[in-house]
Predict the structure.
Amino acid sequence: MKKSLIIFCLFAFGLALVMSLALGRYPIGPADLLGLAGSLLPGIAADAVPVEVRMVFWNIRVPRILLGIAVGSGLSIAGVVFQALFRNPLAAPDILGVTAGSGFGAALAIMFFTRMALGVQGLAFLFGVVAVSIAYFLANRSWDRSASVLVISGIVVSAVFQAGVSILMYLADPYDQLAKIVFWIMGSFHAASWAKVQVTLPVVVVGSLLLTVFGWRLNVMTHNEEEALSLGVDVFRWRLFYLGISTLVVASSVAAVGNISWIGLIVPHIARYLVGTEHRRLIPVAAFIGGGFLLIMDTVARTVSVSEIPISIITSILGAPFLGYLVIHRGRKGALGVGAG
Amino acid sequence: MRNTHIFFFGWLACLGFVLSAAGCDFGRREVAGETRIVVDQMGRRVTVPKNIERIAALHHFGGKVIFALGAQDLLVDQALYHHENTAMARINPVFAAKPKLIDGHNLNNEEMVALRPDIAIAYASFDPSEMERLEHAGIPVVAIRGETLEESYAGVRLVAKVLGREQRGEEYIADCRKLCRLVTERTAAIPRDERVKVLFSGPKNIYSVATGDMLQDTLLTMAGGYNVASSLKGFWATVSPEQVASWNPDVIFLGSSLDTYGAGALFDNGMLETVNAVKHRRVYVFPSNIGWWDYPAPHCVLGLVWAAKMLYPERFVDIDMQALADDFYQKYLGYSFTAMGGRL
């Protein structure tokens, strides 16, 4: 990887981080920001900053930023993994039904388990994992063990859970529960709190690290099964490993902030156009780009107007043209699995 | 080969039959008996029978107006919705025995026609093609709207005229106006910078707030408050937690008796701990447990009195909200608020 590219990525990410820390609907001036930064150093008291400013900064802005970076990176890494496993540039992390499963879990919790602490998030996570597991075992029972059967079982499972969501929405109290279910499914970062960060971050960070460390094996997985098997790679065991870890990452992301599907599809492409298809480079770059990208988008969503703009609108409007630009200008680097490097 | 031919011609014959049937106009059933023409609140000219004995109300506003006009015996459906429906069904077996035409979802057209109402009262937000279908089936549809208090009074007048109960309608409107005056006499003079800053949160979550376009904004202003989100447009706008912190409202009203978040959830929410309303524990769930007081319909005047009393308790010490609600409910719903299981 070119040094200039690494420096550029780090610089862009750092800039996005500083901007997002400084911007928001609650006015926090440069002096207060410096004070807040200073209070992290030992020996400097935080008293210089008004207590309101401190609470808004630490309890609202910082957890939201952390969650944005974590979810963006996690979904992007999972996107890279899924596109490699299915050898399909259109495979998004929700292809095996994790989003539909999580939606069902969340709707179930909104309707029946309202008193449970973290009930919505917990059930969304659980059902996301359950959906993918069903898809996996369904495909496993087939005589055909190729990845395309997994895709079909994913479609089956998604359809069933989506029907489940529709049934729950039909049964829901239309005056408040229904609105809540629809709102949850749309996805948003507003409810980012430390409690959410505490349960989401460990799964996403550990999962992402594991996928990064074992990313080298994906280079072989992008070939077809026979080729990989002839190289002595136990394709099916590795597939289970990658699917398991990325499902945990995606399910905990979706459970925390709802469905933000665009990121997992587009960021792997952007990363691939920048550094090619060698997965040891691709995965960390995708993580960086995904984290930074979602961070910027969410900063726009929460800053530009008094009312929040739904995050999926911004990711589509700003993300899609950027991918289009890359398609035209970096076309030679190729798409999936060809022209590696 | 012959089988294929038979199949083909059979198929063609079926298609021809269906197409010719579709081309026919089976016409509309005309409204029987003596009629007259009224203009509803969507500007539609509707021919309604003079003598109305069976009414279907397809929205809670229309249902409440029918009750307020004392015409509930003419209703063919329950016509009250949500908690209000449950409360009424508990206390009134005749009501409980009637069918529900809309249970928050879609209207069952065939069941509606089978009930043979002389007229249906719909809300202006209804799908116009649905109204047309009903009119084709011989049921005139009068659409009403009450997004502002004045508009809701006009809705009451329209329904009263259709039912020939104008005097009762004026009485109802006069009672609502009296309650409004009771509040505005004590709050209108409060200058802008002394008004209590209020945030009105909606059904989705704490951060979906009532905008300046909504009835809630009018209620808050009349109650002597200042809606911090009044500059926003549209219907239930979503704002960021930082925006709420920056507005720093003194009071937060929660729009309905929500179960996934109530006042308690706000007090435990670290993101809101800088907000005055949370610091001083001034977060209130808008009444009531047996039907909304913050929805478009003249009943919202009860919500107005309640809100004013919550914002300025010292100015409304003499007002016994429960007793006031009891009287209003007794007169315009047939049972007292307390008897229906109402709590503030």
